[in-house]
Amino acid sequence: MDTQTQSLLAQCSSERRAAIEQRVETLLSELTLEQKVGQLNQLNADFATGTAVGDMDVEQGVLDGDIGSVLNVGGLDEARRLQELAVEESDHGIPLVVAFDVIHGQRTIFPIPLGEAASWNPEMAELSARVAATEAAASGIHWTFAPSVDVGRDPRWGRVMEAAGEDPYLSGEVSKARVRGFQGDDLAADDTVLACAKHYVGYGAAEAGREYNTVDLSETALREVHLPPFEASLEAGVGSVMNAFNVYDRIPASGNEALVDELLRDELGFEDLVVSDWNSFGELMQHGVAGDLREAARACIEAGSDVDMVSGAYATELVGLVEDGVVDEKLVDQAVRRLLVVKGVLGLFEDPYRYFDEDRKSKRLLSDDHREAAREVARESQVLLKNEDNLLPLDETEEIALVGGLADSATDMLGAWRAEGRPEDVTTLKTTLDERVGGLTYAEGCDRDGSVTDDQLAAAVDAVADADVAVVAVGERYSQSGEAASRAHLDLPGDQRALLDALVETETPVVAVLFNGRPLAIDWETEHVPAILEAWLPGVEAGPAVADVLLGDHNPSGRLPMTFPVTEGQIPVYYNRLQTGRPPEETDVDLTEFPQGQADKYLSRYLDIPNEPLYAFGHGESYTEFAYTDVSLDAMTVTADETLTVDVTVENTGDRAGTEVVQVYLRDPVASRARPVQELVRFENVNLDAGESATVSFELTTSDLSFWTAAEEYAAEPGEFEIQVGHAADDIIAVETFELVE
Ligand code: GLC
């Protein structure tokens, strides 16, 4: 793929680039081998975000020049102190880079990234990252380990909450926006931070959705599904990439030369920094491809992985490897050069304390405009899954019974990666509805973990029975998604379904609000609960944002970035699937009998569950209706150097303003490899007043038609293509065909 990578230096002015390059080469020439190796060593300062590893004394390490970057520093003062040791007391005086996982906010916590992706609005992702960077850079942080760009097709994997869902294109657009938001136009500015596209590559394909499990991908699947969001991040100029824990082709990503040096660097043109994940260099031993830390260090430096997060492999082995002639010192030099370039573009050589300003921090964190931004993103991230008889929006004058521990749980709204977020910053749904609804009664109904006592149940039933409508908050605790939080069962934890069942029995209409970090198997709820709103884990403005939707101040426009399965048995179930040689057709044959001669028994399906998911990729309802009144292509045939324009006219046929996410899918029905039945290639949010219509135009080029062909190259193969336009992957309104000709 012709990825247009922008290196960090290429993003600088020529003067600044020359000055940084000169400073870096001068430093490099002055450093001893030991000092160079020290730069490549990264340690956690105050707390761990992974397995137990060696406990080098960080202060002494910085003083001795044995550490070049730190993560998980416990605050601005601590960061300043470590920087003073590095700059004013170590022999080389080279400043540290301070890193932290600022995933969806530093202190002003935004919706989890999967929620942001559900807005299908890259501007929301960019806004969130921009605010996060502004707050992080004011908190002594230079480098965030975000965005996660892992494509996730398995909701059992807890880290689907951390990225942008199952689709390569949507993930790419959102990831570009996040990189732009974090890095801005100038990494030396005091409100930008270095971003890090992670985890390179294929981490989201962990077998059975089990965290840190084996990944076994074809090269085609790697290139077609998991690589595109990294390519998009490189195009956005991301300044660092993080190794994944998993193997690719049975070789751990950190020590995989084909993956790092050959694919990421040589083929995709990435010139900047590769950092390991937590102890991922050391884990080459656990994977069984390194007999000891020395072998692990050799494999990783030769693969092109630069900075060693906490394993100590480089710190303890790299000098010896060079002195023994096993590793060429040039490999060390190039890794150190990449790190020094990062320190240069961050402006740390000019002012190592630029990011340590308590006054600026106190002014920026949790400011009113940041909270308002968090509320806007949280509003746009919500997905209306169903709304029978237009039960929603509610009226503030109604007697509303609010039920569920999650409705009043501040900490769970922050998600698993909460940086400096604090529960006391959160406005819960209960707090907001108490203020905005006169006739609100609250009954906990169930604890945050889903457990229900008889008393809780009885009180909830009574409260709901007396109300005009019930709003029931159900879902997962923040700790049930995120890293090391795989779940094999995807129904609502605990007795939440039983609680909903009892409340539905009261005949009072029930609205379920989902607070969760992943797609859930809510088939029963879908059948029995008239309205379901997916709110994800919405951050500090959870209450106002969800109330804005429930009470009709905001018409929900979110769309699912990831398929919801009927049941775990369907997984992996995703929209851009291959057709197979025996695609299922509708049948009324009773498959449990063995009907001799019934040819249509022998098709790709289950005996006991449907193939179709519960909710498809791109699904989402609105308080208004939209009609696609015209879909047209500006040509029936195109050549390789021509563009194709797709015009779509959408009308708001309802009685209130709303936003339709127009989705354009492509199908290449006959090619040298089996191609997906549909692939998202464009989308657009269209805001329309009642009765208003608009035409949106999408331009497609040959690059959009290209794929990893059987000839093992990216190319668009001549032949017929389908353009599918619609409201969701399973709600296609129009199909047009065109031909690519030689
Ligand atoms: C964790 C995560 C990674 C994170 C790193 C530092 O194990 O895998 O995403 O950035 O360690 O916290």
TrEMBL record:
Residues 660-729 form the Fibronectin type III-like domain. It catalyses: Hydrolysis of terminal, non-reducing beta-D-glucosyl residues with release of beta-D-glucose. InterPro entries: Cellulose_Degrad_GH3 (IPR051915), Fn3-like (IPR026891), GH (IPR017853), Glyco_hydro_3_C (IPR002772), Glyco_hydro_3_C_sf (IPR036881), Glyco_hydro_3_N (IPR001764), Glyco_hydro_3_N_sf (IPR036962), Ig-like_fold (IPR013783). Gene3D superfamilies: Glycoside hydrolase family 3 C-terminal domain, Glycoside hydrolase, family 3, N-terminal domain, Immunoglobulins. Keywords: Glycosidase, Hydrolase, Signal. It is an enzyme of class 3 (hydrolase). Its EC number is 3.2.1.21. GO terms for molecular function: beta-glucosidase activity. SMART domains: Fn3_like (SM01217). One of its GO terms (biological process) is glucan catabolic process. Belongs to the glycosyl hydrolase 3 family. This is beta-glucosidase. It comes from Halogranum gelatinilyticum.
